[in-house]
From TrEMBL:
Source species of the chain: Micromonospora cathayae
Pfam annotation, one family: HxlR
SUPFAM superfamilies reported in the protein's UniProt record: Winged helix' DNA-binding domain
InterPro entries (alphabetical): HTH_HxlR, WH-like_DNA-bd_sf, WH_DNA-bd_sf
PANTHER family, alphabetized: TRANSCRIPTIONAL REGULATOR, MARR FAMILY, TRANSCRIPTIONAL REGULATORY PROTEIN
Entry keyword DNA-binding: yes
Location of the HTH hxlR-type domain: 18-116
Alphabetically ordered keywords of this record: DNA-binding, Transcription, Transcription regulation
Domain of life, source organism: Bacteria
PROSITE patterns in the cross-refs: HTH_HXLR (PS51118)
Protein name: Helix-turn-helix domain-containing protein
């Protein structure tokens, strides 16, 4: 008799979720989300992104932009002028993702107080149990 903590259906869902996890690992990063939000209003230049995303280094912004471009979430346009001008714009799939991020942000704002209260209650119970 085989012992398992997951039902066969749940195990199948976990296996199927692997590609989803890969995508979420990429787009759910702090900097990726910030870039997607910052670029949502249209084409934006590197320096505009750098100024609008508090705490991001030039190196991290460069890496994030490259990864988002590689994943098909950003379109990079280079203009042949001196000095070079580069614009970044969300692709249609990134715009769809942005809409989902707005929903998630709204959810977080609506439930922030409830989550905070739950954390406080949990921590109080843990302290009482430890004491």
């Amino acid at each position: 008799m085989q012992t398992s903590t997951l039902s066969d259906r749940t195990a199948d869902i976990v296996v199927q979720a692997c590609p989803v996890r890969e995508v979420l690992d990429r787009v759910a990063g702090k900097w990726s989300i910030m870039v997607i939000i910052a670029a949502a209003d249209g084409p934006v230049r590197f320096t505009e992104l750098e100024r609008s995303i508090d705490g991001i280094s030039r190196r991290m912004l460069t890496l994030t932009l490259r990864n988002l471009e590689r994943d098909g979430l950003l379109h990079r346009t280079v203009y042949p002028v001196v000095p070079p001008r580069v614009d970044y714009e969300l692709t249609p799939i990134a715009r769809e993702l942005h809409e989902s991020l707005l929903s998630l942000t709204g959810w977080a704002q609506r439930h922030r107080a409830t989550i905070s209260a739950a954390r406080t209650a949990y921590d109080s119970r843990r302290l009482a149990d430890a004491g």
